[in-house]
Amino acid sequence: SRRNLPANPSDLVAPALRKENLATMFRNHQYDMDCITWSPNGRILQVEYAMEAVKQGTPVLALRNKTHVVLVAFKRAQSELAQHQKKIVKIDEHMAFGLSGLTADAAVLADYMRNECLNHRYVFDAPMNIGRLVAQVADKSQQKTQNSSKRPFGVGLLVVGCDEKGPHLFETCPSGNYFEYYAMAIGGRSTSAKTYLEKYFSEFENCDLDALVKHGLEAMNKTTASDQSLTVKNTSVAVISTTSPYRELSEEELQKVINTLEEKKDK
After folding, report:
1. Which long-range contacts (CB under 8 A, 24 or more apart) does 161-166 make?
2. What is the pLDDT of residues 161-192, one digit of tens each?
3. Which residues of 156-184 are buried (b: 16+ CB within 10 A; e: fewer)?
4. Is pLDDT above 60 for 52?
């Protein structure tokens, strides 16, 4: 009878639509419950989510010439009362990394890398080879993607250092991939920095340290919002060379370079 019909005819199709939406949602999520299940598209979604965590992190970049490698990181504070979170981690006298993503995951990798450097120095009385250690970190990251009870590391690293072959710059990914670069930027809004690095890449090899640091800060300046600028509080720069060990630039040195940066144009 008409008395049993709903007042709104659309209420008749609503339960069917809800059921269809739930089915679609379930289909999308049944492949991302662990990192050993392939989706029908040939993707491992948990690993892609970890890669997304790196893209959402704070920007970090590095660039090198024939003798030096420079690491630049942007630091954020949780609030005005909090200290800025450190994004550059020293591993050994000849090696460091900048991180984008989960800081706690980076701490686990930092401990592992420091132990490997200590063991290598103890056994061979020589500093650890940069490429070999990066390959070991990549193996460790890849192992996390093959066990259903584990999850991938949600952090990307830019590992920099100098060994007997000269300066090196490597990027590591949560998937276990790693790549060597002359200049690279990762993290949120890093596309702008990459564009700058690609534009001036040909100058890096023959420029001196001061020019290399300025290029690094100019690239980092491109990642900030138009109403935000680099300061000695939210930026850190580390330098390693073939002749001198790891050191971070002091606030006075950093301020001198920041004062020379190109001013942002109002959009």
Report:
1. 161/69, 161/91, 161/92, 161/94, 161/95, 161/96, 161/130, 161/240, 162/69, 162/94, 162/130, 162/240, 162/241, 162/242, 163/94, 163/127, 163/128, 163/129, 163/130, 166/66, 166/67, 166/242
2. 999 999 999 999 999 999 999 999 999 999 99
3. bbbbbbbbeeebbbbbbbbbbebeeeebb
4. yes
pLDDT at 225: 86
Phi, psi at residue 214, to the nearest 5°? -65, -40
Q: How many CB atoms lie within 10 A of CB 104?
A: 10
Query: What confidence tens digit (pLDDT) does each residue in 59-111 have?
Result: 999 999 999 999 999 998 888 888 889 999 999 999 999 999 999 999 999 99
- Alpha-carbon distances of 75 from 3, 79, 228, rounded to whole Å: 65, 12, 13
**Residues 32/36/38/43 CA torsion (nearest 10 deg):** 80
Q: Which pTM does this prediction carry?
A: 0.86
Are 240 and 246 spatial neighbours (Cβ–Cβ below 8 Å)?
yes
State the Cα–Cα distance between residues 23 and 16, nearest whole angstrom: 11
**8 Å CB contact between 91 and 144:** no
Backbone φ and ψ for 90, nearest 5 degrees, come out as -80, 130
